[in-house]
Structures are given as C-alpha cells and as structure tokens.
Amino acid sequence: MAKFEEECSYNCVSVKNFFRLPIAFKEENCYLINEGNRCIVKVSERKLLHSWRLKHPHYFTAPIVFDNEDESMYCVIENNTVLRWPYSTADDDVLKVASKFKFQEAVFGVIPISGHKPLILFASGKAIKGEELGTQSVPKGSFTTENENLIWADSLELNSETVVVCLSQKNDNYQLHYFTVTERKMKRGCNHALVQKEAALKNWCLNKSTHSFVTIWSNGLILSYNLDTKEETTLLTLPDIDKHSLAVDFMDSNHLTILKYIPKTKGACLEMWDLKFKVLKARKTLKNIGSTDVKLSVIGSSVFFSNGEDLVEVPYHIEKSTLASGLGKCSSAAPILQEFSWSTKKYTDSSSSEKNTIEKMDIAENETFVLDSTELIAQRLMEEGSSCLNYISEAELVRLLRLAIRHKFKKKNSEEKMNIDPVIILNAVFSTSFSEVFLVKSLKKLSLEDTMAALSFLASFLLDDESPSVKDKEKPSDLQLFSWMFLVIQSHMEALLLSKDKKAIKLFRKLQKCISEKMQDCEDIENIQYLLHLIQKKKNILPEKYVTGKYCIETLDT
C-alpha cells in the first residue's frame, strides 16, 4: 500500500469510474480496482489477464493488499467487511470463493505486514492482526482521540521490525502516529505533530528506503521526518505551489516524483527531482486534466496517476533523467470488461460494440517545450547563482559547457524559450572545483568543434574579450582558466594534431597571445606552451598507426 486520500479511499459511498490507487504489485502483475465496473483487475504488460467482480450493490472502500504468507488477497467492501481469497483463483466472482469478515465498526484499511498476515486497521485507530481473523473479531487498542479522523496509513521495515505509520486529522491539525507490530503484539507507538506556521499541508508520502515520512506544504517546503532518529529536515523548497493540487511519491531513496495540477491551464506537470543535488531532472507536461483530485503511485519503473476516469502510466529512467510518453487511456467501464490495452492515442474495449467518446489527453512530447536535466540546472544557475554547482558532477559540468557553446554559436530555437546567458554559465563552470581524472574522462567526449569552441571561450576570458555581464568577483581566476585550457588540449591532443582546419591556426595564435600576456609562474602555462609548440610544429610525435611509408620486419631465430 502506498498512499491514498480519504475521499477516494474509504468514506466515499458513491460509485466512480476511475481506477483506484494505489496499485498492488505481485510477480510482475498489477492489481487495481475499477470502481465503475466494481471489479479487481489483474494487468500485465498493459493487458488484462483476469478480473474479479462484485455483485450489486457491493462496492470497494479500500485498495488491495497481498498476503505473501498464504498467497491471499485482501480488500474491504462497504466500509465494514474484509474479503480474503487466493489470488490464483479463476472464479469470476470474488464473493463465491472469498472468506468474509464483517465488523460492527468501520474498517479503514488492510495494512501489509512483512512476514505476517496483514493488519486490519479501523477508522477508530483500533486494529486486529490478520492471524486473529475468525478467532477474535473485537478490535483492540487505539491511538486517536475524540473527533480525530484517520486519513492515511502504510507500513515499512525498520530495524528488522514492521512499523505501521498513520496520519490523522482533527480540524486543521495533523498528527503522525507510528507503532511496531511483532509476532505477539502491537507495541505502544509514538506521535509527532505536523506543524508549519502559516502553511497548509498539501500532500505526503513514505520513503521506505530512508524510513522517513515526507510532507509538502503550501509554502513550498518539502520536509522529511525520520521515524528512527525522530529528526526533521528540509529536503527541498518549491516556488509558487500554494494554489496547486499536488501528489508525491518516491522513485528511489533520492528521487522524488511530483504531480502538480495547474488550475489556470487546466493541465498538470509531472516532475522528477534529485533530492541529493536539489535539481529538477525531468518534467513532463500534461494536458486536459479534468480532475483536481490527482493521485500518484510508483510501481517498478513507472509512475501511475489517475485523473478522474483515466489511468495513465509514465515510464521513467533515473540514470538518463527521462520521463517517457504517457501510456494509457480508459473511458467509463463497460458492463463486461474482458480486454483492454494502453496506447498513446486511445483506449480500446473489445467487449463493447459501441465506441465510447474519448477526450484526448495529450502528454505533450513534441508540442510542448520540455527541458532536459542540464537545461534545468542552467536555469537554476541563472536564478540562484553558482552555489547550485557545489555538488555537481564533472560530467554535468561538461554538459553545461556544451549547452553554453550551443547557445552561443548555434542559436537553437530553445534559446528563445530559455532565459540563459552563455557567459554566466561558462563563468560558473570554469569557476567550479573538479576532479581532474573525472573531468578529463568527460572532456574526451567533446567533439573537435566543441573543443575548439571551448578553447576560444577560455582565450576570450583570459583576454577579457567577453561580455561584462559577470561581476569581477564571480569570474574565474587566470589559474582556473589555464587549468581548463591545459586539460581540454590534453584530452584532444591527437585530434588537434590531425586537424587541418584553418580556424585552428588562428585559434592557436590567440592562445599564444594569452600566454604571452599572462606570463605567470604556473605549471599549466608551461605545459600549454609545450603542447601548442608540438601542435604547431607537428613534430614526429604521432602514434605509429598514423605514420605512413614505414615498416619494420623483425626476425626471431628459433
């Protein structure tokens, strides 16, 4: 169980058509609830494998949970009844094969417990262990007070024990509760008040990798409360989110995905954030979002979100910093649901003879301008200054260098849509500390054209030929510039030796001028002088594979 909100999970009695989140995941199959058709569907590779239906007037009031101990599925219907049945069953109607446990008070949900049967959690804050179902039907314990409503619950592994984490609300006050469940008992738990002055709680999620409860507030703060150390830290600060509906979840321990609903445009955007470097790595723009009640769930390497009647899957790749095109579109549930497939264009229902009218929801790939991770870092650099590069990798420094070269010389269309000054970017890049080994490795990936452009930039900075848009205190020192110049030449020595470009001669003269005007006691200057001398004189330093007209035969006596 990931996360869910009160309205769409427990207290609603009206039947809606959207697919209920979160999604359960078992053996590469997804299990989710289609409320409009009152069925649980089993999906793999975006194909329906099986469905279990409820008879009218039954309705679901909580997501599905798996019990790995006896290979059973659990769900809650009509707020007070728990169903348990083997997920391998082929029966169409869950009530025919399910064990049924009805209680006198409202069941909030079923919470997975590692190594044990799930915990039955009640709206009152009481609970029953799964092992006690059928033998003891009286809930026990409680961690909530009068008029305090339970609105969210989940579980995680902490210090080899399962911790149940709950969120309650009383008026405008939110309280975090968490307690340990062992084989024998439920231990007394802890409480933590969630408070932010003059800010409202927008959304929350659980980071199971770091054992933290994460909240996002209307003032833009994203806070993390560690359940083990009981310390609260700030992960990130987002601007202008007060009027947005938000949903958050974790891709891994350091990457957070955020879905923002934007009222003005009636659209939304899906973002991937790197919390370690506090960098926005990817953004996907979504159009025609009809519901402000956005929900999000990360399963495997995909982000699932629901929008009213729609379920959309967006695959992601953290290493490549990409959010793929959205897959998925569903319309109102048909009376008999036998097969469906996801595509980027439409939803098809083979059981329906009538074609449903489908409102297009475009996940803009070509129509909308989407920034890559390097461009996003550049934008942040323009807004916040070079301090955002303190922990950046050498590979990203070189990508920023290439971005500045592109905007300076190639004048791509993206430049018109991005407020980027190449001179400011280059000053920040050349001023940032680096590891020589890793920088050389990344510099070798530059093309010859970009290499010569980088050398030209370095020479211009040394000769003060560039734009005065940067203050003197923000400019790199001559020693920093000469260090970059030496490493760039060293990384592409062979290509520069073989180059027949006439522009190269002019560039080398410019570099010689820099050296003569900036004569300093600097090892890099001497090294650069030596390399330039070799390049210009083209002495016999080429590898043997480039030398023609010579060969050698060696005879070995045996």
TrEMBL record:
Subcellular location: Nucleus, Nucleolus
InterPro entries membership: NOL11 (IPR042859), Nol11_C (IPR048897), NOL11_N (IPR012584)
Top-level taxon of origin: Eukaryota
Keyword Nucleotidyltransferase: no
Coiled coil regions in record: none
Gene Ontology cellular component terms for the protein in this record: nucleolus
Record domain Nucleolar protein 11 C-terminal: where: 412-556
Domain Nucleolar protein 11 N-terminal: 2-316
GO molecular function: RNA binding
Main subcellular location: nucleus
PANTHER family assigned to the protein according to its UniProt record, in alphabetical order: NUCLEOLAR PROTEIN 11
Record's protein name: Nucleolar protein 11
Species whose genome carries this gene: Larinioides sclopetarius
Lineage: Eukaryota, Metazoa, Ecdysozoa, Arthropoda, Chelicerata
